[in-house]
Amino acid sequence: MKKLLVLMLSVMMAVVFMTGCGGSQTEESGGGDADKEAAQACADAIDAIYVGEWTEDTEQQCLDAKAKWDALTDEQKEMVEGEEADPGYFGDDTGDASKDDPLNGDKIGDKEILVVSFGTSFNDKRVACIGSIEKAVQEANPDWAVRRAFTSQIIMNHIFARDGEKIDNIKQALARAEENKVKELVVVPTHLMKGKEYDEVVEAINEYKGKFDSLKFAEPLLGEVGKDASVINEDKERCAKAVTKAAVKDAKYDDLDAAEKDGTAFVFMGHGTSHEANITYDQMQKQMDELGYKNVFIGTVEGEPEDTACDKVIEKVKKAGYKKVILRPLMVVAGDHAHNDMADADDPESWVSQFTAAKAFDSVDCQITGLGEIKAIQEMYVDHAKDAINK
Questions:
Q1: Helix (H, G, I), strand (E, B) or coil at 329
Q2: Do residues 271 and 179 share a domain?
Q3: CA 296 to chain centre
Q4: pLDDT 10s digits, 251-283
C-alpha cells in the first residue's frame, strides 16, 4: 500500500511538472508574439523610409530603422516583413560601402561637373559602375571638380540607413554647388535615354537657371530618341558595339561570329518604360541588326515596348534556332534588376527561370555586368561631358 501511495504521488508530481512546463510554453508563445512585434516594428520603420521624398525627419527615421534592426536577434531578423521591408534590406551583403566615394565634398572651386545617376544600393556595383564613370570624367577634366547626385531617394535612404553613407539628391547637390559659389556647372546624366527619369533631372536643373554664370547639360548615353525604330545614331552604334564586344569576351569567344557558329545568342535586358522614349529599345535592336549581329536580341523587364517582353524575346531566340543563351543587362548598373529580375534562379518570374522553363535551350547563363563597367562606355560619358563643356 505504501508503495502504491508513493507511485501515485510520483504521478501527481509529474503531472504538476508537465503542467508547469505547459505554462512555460505558454510564456514562450507570448515571447513569440514579442518577437513578431519587434520584427514588425522594424519592418514598419523600413517602410517609412521607402519613400521618394527627403524631409527634415528622414535622417532620423533612417537611424531609427537601423537601430531597430540591430536590436533584433537573428531569428527576429528573419521575421521582418512589410510592404517593402524584408530581411535583405539590412541583411544582404552587397559589398563594402567604405570603398565608395559619395563625392559630396565642399571647397571645390568655381567649375563643377555634376554626374547624375539613378543610383543603386549594391555597394560593389555602385563603385564599379557609377564610380568608374565619375572617375573617368574626373581624369579627363582635371580642372573641374566632379560631384555626384542620385535621383532615387529610396536608394539614398537605403544606403544611409544601412551603411551610414550620405549621397546628395539633385536638390541637395545643386544647393551645395550654389553654396560653394560654383560659376560654371555642367550636368552629366548617366541615364540610358531621354525618358521619365531624364525629364525629371532636366526639370530640377532648370529651377536653378540663373544661379550660375553657366549651366550646361550633357546628352544621356544613347543620345536623341528619334521618332521611330529606324532612327539610330552614333551613340547607339558605339553602345551596341561596346556591350556586345564585352559580352563576347566574357563568354570567352574570339568574336561574335564564333559565338553564332556555336549556337549562342546574347540577350541584353533593359528596363523598359511607358515613356515615349521606349522606342529606344527597338532602335537598339535595329542598330544590332544594322551591324549584322544576328544573334543579339534586346529585351526589357517592363515589356515596353511590347515586343521586348521576355516571352516575346524567348520566341525570337527559339525561332532563330539558337540553343545557348547568355543574358546580360542593358543597364548602366547591374544592380537589383540584374540580380533579381534577370539572374535569380529561385524566382520563377526571372528571365533566367523563364528561358530555362521554355525547355528550348541547352544552357542559359547570366553575365551580371553593368554598362558602367565597360571602358568604352565610360569614354562615351567623357565625350558627352566634353561636348557639353564646349557648347
A1: strand
A2: no
A3: 23
A4: 999 999 999 999 999 999 999 998 999 999 999
271 located within any domain: yes
Whole-angstrom distance, CA of residue 134 vs CA of residue 117: 10
Closest CA to 215 of 229, 205, 225: 205
Tell me how far apart the alpha carbons of residues 112 and 212 are, in angstroms, rounded to a whole number: 11
Q: What is the DSSP letter of 169?
A: B
Prior bond of 305 cis (ω within 30°): yes
Q: Are residues 280 and 346 in the same domain?
A: yes
Using only C-alpha atoms, what is the Rg of the chain?
27
pLDDT digits (tens, 9 = 90+) for 200-224: 999 999 999 899 999 999 999 999 9
Reported as a single tens digit per residue, the pLDDT across 315-358 is 999 999 999 999 999 999 999 999 999 999 999 999 999 999 99
Kindly report the pTM of this predicted structure.
Answer: 0.89
Whether 314 and 355 map to the same domain: the answer is yes
Evaluate if residue 194 carries a pLDDT over 70: yes
Q: Kindly state whether residue 15 falls inside one of the protein's structural domains.
A: no
Q: Which residues contact 91 (CB under 8 A, 6 or more apart)?
A: 77
- Find the distance separating the first CA and the last CA of the chain, reported in whole Å: 110
Is 228 part of a structural domain of the chain? no
The grid coordinates listed for 43 are 519592418
Asked if residue 136 is part of any domain, the answer here is yes
Q: Are the C-beta atoms of residues 301 and 339 closer than 8 Å to each other?
A: no
